[in-house]
Structures are given as structure tokens and as C-alpha cells.
Amino acid sequence: QGVNDGVRRSASSGALNISEAWRLLEVYRVSEGLTGKEMKDVEVAFQAFSCTTNEGISVREAGMVVRWLGFELTLQQELLLVQEVDVADTGRLAPAEFRKFMRKLKERELEQIQAGFSRLVELRDQSPNSQAEQEQADLLQFLGCGESHMRLPVSLLMSPGATRAAVRHRRLVRGSFRLHCGFGPSEVQGFRNAFRRCDPDGKGYIGEKEFRQLCEKLFPQLTTSQASRLELQRILAAVDQGGDGRVDFYDYLRLMREFWSLRRAEALQKEHAAVQKCDFTVQQVRD
């Protein structure tokens, strides 16, 4: 798809001459193989989360963009990928570097899909047990397959068509992240269960008092001083977009996103402090 988009952007007719072929290569290089829609999504997300657009985005901001675009990474995976594309070691990613970052994420996902189908073949030949059954269920969900796929011939499970179908499924799943503040389907379900516990009467919202208590439980470090309480007030205002003191489920998801972002920032600060204190390189700390 990326190549097809590149052809449309670089060719004046169905056939490519030398100049147009060179232009195609240049378009493909600049876009890092992303489709036109993917390029647009990346650009929108980059601008939405970048606090200082001229200087690129920080590692923390990159993590939020990646989540919004539907890729789930641990902090260590994220930092290692940033290190691969941040060749100047500035700690920030320019737009071109972030496109390269996204290409690596797509390549990683494709490898996971191919490895997933290979693992399904292995599991099919194993004796049934609860651990293998759970792993199989998780893989089928990740690949967008059903139980019936386990009865297909190996040649079909490992075919390019199966891989393309799984890629399309992952693209749809990633799209759902944007509707749920950067959280995936399983995370959203867990949050729904937690929200119901905060709303035992089933009203569909949490009252102002209960909401403040929940925030103070999630962000205890923001209740220790006047300055930190101002930050807590900012979070409350950002989450309660209706301004009525009532927090519905999507307000609750925004709160969880603030919590996730704060925890990620704390982890980054700890790593930076370790680098400064121990005089280690960044790579040594991550290892």
C-alpha cells in the first residue's frame, strides 16, 4: 500500500520513467514506507502531542503519540527504539525521525504476526493444557482469528493472505485506541469493570466527591503542597470536560490516561537520575 501511494504521488501516468522512478524512491524514503493515511495520522498525532514542535517531541511525548496510534510498548522497548532513530542522541525526535520510529513499529508488528502464526502451528501439535490453551486464545485474538482457523492446513495459516488479513485486523484494533484515549480493548474492558465499582448504583457517572477521592488515591504525590494541588486541579479540569462535577466513563478514561502519563514521566525521571548519579551511559542503565 505504501508503494502504491508513492506511485500515485510521484507518477504522471501508469508507467514510470527514470525521473519518476527516482521521485518514487525519494517519496518512499521520506515517508518511510507509510501510506498516505498513515502519514496524515502520524502528522496529526505529532502536532497534537508536541509541546515544542520546532524542537521535535520528547521521549514522554513520543510514548503518548505511539499509544494514540495504537501501538503498545513497554517503557524499555520504547526507549530502545527511540535510541535507534535518535542518532544525534538529543532525547527528542524530529518529524523525520518519528516517521522512522513508526516504520520500525510496523515492522515489529509484522514480525509479531508472522511469529504468531508459526506459534499457532506449534500449539496445534502439542498436547492440550490450560497454559497452551490460554496462549492460543491470546494469539487468536491478536491475529483476529477464530477457533476454526486452528483446523486450517498449515499452508493456509502461513500464507501471505493470512498475514495480510491479520495486518488489516491490527490496523482496525489500533484505530480503536484513538476512541479510548490511547487504551486497547482489553485495557478498556478492565477500566469498565473498575468504573462499575466506582458507580455501584449504575448511574453512569461518578459524583464530584467520589471523583476527588479517586484522584487523591491515584495521585497522592499531588496532595502534598499548594503547587502540586494546582496540578491536581489541572487534571480534574482536563478530565471533567463537561464541568459539571460528574465523571462518565470517557472522563474516567481521560483520568487513567493522565495517571499513565504521570507514571511514565516518573519512570523516565528515575532513569535520567540513575544516569546522572552513576555516570553510566543510557544503554548501560537500560541493560
Feature tags:
mainly alpha; 287 residues; globular
Question: Could you characterize the architecture of this molecule?
Answer:
Helix 1 crosses helix 2 (18-31), helix 3 crosses helix 4 (59-68) and helix 3 (36-49) crosses helix 6 (95-124). The protein has helices spanning 2-10, 18-31, 36-49, 59-68, 75-85, 95-124, 130-143, 154-157, 160-179, 185-198, 208-218, 226-239, 249-278, 282-286; strands spanning 57-58, 92-93. It has 287 residues and is mainly alpha-helical.
Helix-strand sequence: HHHEHHEHHHHHHHHH
* Structural class designation: mainly alpha
Helical residue percent band: 55-70%
What's the β-strand tally? 2
Main sheet: strand order: 1-2
- Rg is 23 Å
**In one word, what is the shape?**
globular
Poorly predicted runs: none
Distance between the termini: 37 Å
Number of helices: 14
Summed over residues and divided by their number, the pLDDT gives a mean of 80
Main sheet summary: 2 strands, antiparallel
Q: Which percent band covers the strand fraction? A: under 5%
Secondary structure layout plus pairing:
Blueprint lengths: L1 H9 L7 H14 L4 H14 L7 E2 H10 L6 H11 L6 E2 L1 H30 L5 H14 L10 H4 L2 H20 L5 H14 L9 H11 L7 H14 L9 H30 L3 H5 L1
Antiparallel strand pairs: 1-2
